[in-house]
Amino acid sequence: MPLRLSKIVLVATIALWLALVAFGNLTDYRSNLVFVQHVLAMDSIFPDASVHYRAIHAPLLQHAAYVLIIAIETLAAVLCGLGAWRLWRARRAPAALFRRSARVAVAGLTLGLLLWLGGFMAIGGEWFGMWMSTQWNGLASAFRFVVVLLLALVCLGQRDDELDD
């Protein structure tokens, strides 16, 4: 039972964390939008970089990208929260049922990984050259998200047959 409770608390805490990230982006829309705009505009990367053609300067597209980020953060938070609830309800169930109840949590954690690894690290970091910026570089923060979410996925994937004995 302690391993199951640990998994439940971990997923619930990540749901809270992601919800607070989404809430912060919604309630402080302007200042966080500025980050997205600078990354997409590529206005702080090396001046002689040959990738400036990739820049997106259209405000509508910049807002759309930011709204998509917030939507994915929100959905990941909701899925993790729902996943934690389902895990809680299955905490005394046989191991196979408990593992199946983790599917929604796995979806939420995976969605978060897609956002921070695929969206921020791959697209933002590499395609838009965020790694070249000293002021608008979110790679360290994205890496922190990726590590936490990935470790949570690994933890959640650990088998626990303790209640089947």
Distance between the termini: 12 Å
Uncertain stretches of 5 or more adjacent residues: none
Evaluate the radius of gyration: 19 Å
CA-based shape:
elongated
* Main beta sheet: none
Share in β-strands: under 5%
Q: Would you tell me the structural class of the helices and strands?
A: mainly alpha
N-to-C series of helices and strands: HHHHHH
Total count of strands: 0
User: Count of helical segments?
Assistant: 6
Mean pLDDT: 96
Number of domains: 1
Which bin fits the share of residues in helices?
Answer: over 70%
List the helices and strands and how they pair.
Blueprint: H1 2-27, H2 29-41, H3 59-89, H4 95-101, H5 103-127, H6 139-157
Helix pairs in contact: 1-2, 1-3, 1-6, 2-3, 3-5, 5-6
Structure description:
By secondary structure, the protein is an all-alpha fold. The chain has one domain. It is built from six helices and no strands. Helix 1 packs antiparallel against helix 3, helix 2 packs across helix 3 and helix 5 (103-127) runs antiparallel to helix 6 (139-157). The longest helix is centred in the middle third of the chain and has 31 residues, at 59-89.
